[in-house]
Amino acid sequence: MNNIAPKLSAKEYESNFAELKPALTDIAAHAEANRCLYCFDSPCMTACPTHIDISTFIKKIATGNMKGSAKTILSSNWVALTCAKACPVDVLCEGACVYNDKGEKPIQIGRLQRHVMDWYVENGMPQLFTPAPKNGMSVGVIGAGPAGLACAAELSILGFDVTIYEAHKIPGGLDTHGIAPYKMKQQDSLNEVKMIKKLGVKTKTGALIGKTISISKLEKLHDAIFIGTGLPKPTELKIPGENLAGVFNALDFVEDVTKRNWKSVKVGKRVAVIGAGNTAIDAATEARRLGAIEVYMIYRRGREQMSAYDFEYELAKSDGIKFYFHSQPKRIVGKKKVEALECLETKIVDGKLKPVPRSEFKIPVDMVIKAVGQNIDDSFLSSIPDLKIEDGMVVVDGKTYQTTNPKYFAGGDCINGGKEVVNAAYDGKRAAYGIRKWIFGE
Question: 229 with 368: CB under 8 angstroms?
Fold first, then answer.
């Protein structure tokens, strides 16, 4: 039996993965900017984790000062293009817009930010900031994801010599490898890496800490070290059949899709995605858009407990994804490759999730994608003296982002368990000031 999804034409693939929110024209952006009330208290700015001065950057669009607008944005957020396209703006900045209280459409802050950052990239990313004179101190940054990039950029502006160590051959972390192409292109993230390198930040890719470079050497090279490694290890299901051919991890699948070589991505005719977070939604919708005939999302709890945002859920439904709520995977069925997924029905008893006895049912599938969470990679973290890890996260001071080993600081998913890109960008920037305070007392 052929269990491979039918291949689509190049035109169909491009159509399926076209951006959900296309760029605004200059006229549309100007008109939208002039709708802004430029609120004195700017609730949108408060709702943004990086606290971009949104009213000001929008006002500068309205007056034609695009360079000034870009500077306002980047002063707060070094991965602003990624955030403009991938942030859940409807629950953050746009969700706080006062127009919502009037029953009107909120200002399209995300698309306006994207308009500015597109302009900035298209105009060669002109230098907007003058780094302080070199202060003679060096910082090593582990991980070239949003937290690491933000920390490195801010440190460079503050006069530090900065080197980023990235395990992948291509930098950018989750922004480069883990965001669905219909949200943003991989090149957007790479442009942000390029921008940060223009500040004088050095990058070393293919650098595996603890393997290609030791912790002791890293400590000798740098006066302080920032950990921004994210959550690279997928959570296992720990059920029979997990090692069958046709079982994939969600981030590996999404990473293959981001390369845009659509026909090379392995996808089954009938796909089960286990999990109900935003990454699970991405994997499910991507499988459907790659040609899968049926895609099912399997979640042991109910709709109200899904961690995915409402707009992600609606997107999945519009793509024809079928949901199995209160369904817990019991085993993956097959001899050498996936043939079905066996589940148990669940229910809530006294506030606890319980399987329903003798409620087993099978879903015929030929591919299973695991999207039940990610974990930190402690293979090298455990070798750092006095570094405290608690509940699967690196423990830091809430203000300085300093870990229990004073030479190390950390931010992003490895300290918060997996929040948004914008949260990682904020962590990285604040950690830079924590590092400066620790070294210079400022």
Answer: no
